[in-house]
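Hey, quick one: can you model this chain's 3D structure?
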Amino acid sequence: MDIFLFHGKIWRGEGQFADAMVIRRGRILAVGREQELYPRAEGCAFLSCEGRTVIPGIFDACLCLAAAASPLPEGRSGLKEAVRGWLAAHHWFAKKGARLCWRSAGQRLTREEMDDLWSAAPLVLEDVAGETAWANSRALERLEKAGVPAAAAPYIGFGPEGRMSGEFRGPACRVLADSLPRPPQGQVRALVLDWLQKAARSGITTVQSMDLGVTLSERDLPVVRQLYRERDDLPRLRFFTRKFRGLREDFAGRLVPPEGLSRLGRQAGQPVTPVNGGTALETVLECLRRQPLPDGNPRRLTLLGAACTDAGQLREMGELALGVVGFPGRLERTLEGCAARPGAELDTCCAWRTLSRLGAKVAFGGLDSLEPFAALEKALCRSVVRPGGIELLSREALTLEEGLTAWTAGAAWTGFLEDALGRLERGYQADLLVLDRDIFTCPAGDLARARPVLVMSGGRVLWRNI
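Sure thing. Here's the predicted structure for all 466 residues.
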């Protein structure tokens, strides 16, 4: 549908605004003054923004949809009620076994506590961000029957009597998840649809997803693709993958562990490397010293995380023009984790502003709570002392435009899409949000409460409450 969007405050970057836009065939034909564009709107459906702010759609550069759309609360409060409520509504999982994502907020569970949550079938709760999972006795019995690979044993918690405690870390989480029954395609379809619709309502118009190989298997891909053939109200979805499968539009970068960069050579695919902790980052930089990138980083090597850094590492990352995906929604937890590391330099952690100034390409991702404006406010307000004595350093506080750019054009760069997504300009895809308040003039603390009243991707309306 062709649309004439008018009477809006359309952000174009660098303090520039327009009040109208013509959209034809899913792309922006023109942006400017309403009076000037009116003659070019013939045949368009007219849509008034009623003076509201319009920004590009949110591009989440690295998101686990299953975790973000999880029905479980953060932390322990109300966890049992939420788990049982979800299982009561999903009978197959209640009988056969379920794996749910839980934002643990640093809290841990025992085998007995997992049994208290649900004991009628296998149950696994996984904190994807923390690379930790917990299992009840039924899930552990199933794992024992399948056999525990020797390589996973060091990452499994054991009690004093050699009995599994129910806690798993790192690669053992994958072994645990693989031991559960695979849900039928109808159940997979319903779950993925629920995840995508929740993402759309939050304002996300493009997702680079970590779900493949974590919460979805390769066998689930035909179900996902069929869903997109049947519906046109879902955000754009691209998967990270651990194997290169050719140039398909639904595959984003190829996940490469830090030590794997030394073997990258001429292998196809954009390399994307998760970096948790200073040791992993130093491994990445050492590989790049031995095998330098071409000038300008044409393959768009992108680091996921890379939060705990020192001044020298920041300079190297900038000189190499690396992509860096930061997770503003986890800012406080990340800084607390960095502060606990021996020798950590807190004033250079999550230094997104400095990285951008030095030449790195900063993008945002990891919308764990599907609240992009609450996450954005954390990146803007870094001068408050939080419980535990962690001072969030104001010199790394971003401006609103810097934060919006990381969520939009910066994230699009990580997917080679900066010429099609992330800006509201002629020729770009019509991915946009109409907001319920003016985030450029609203009082401090009000930004976190901003919500979209219209979400559009490629000219298609994903969500509307206007």
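One thing worth noting: The chain has a mean pLDDT of 89.
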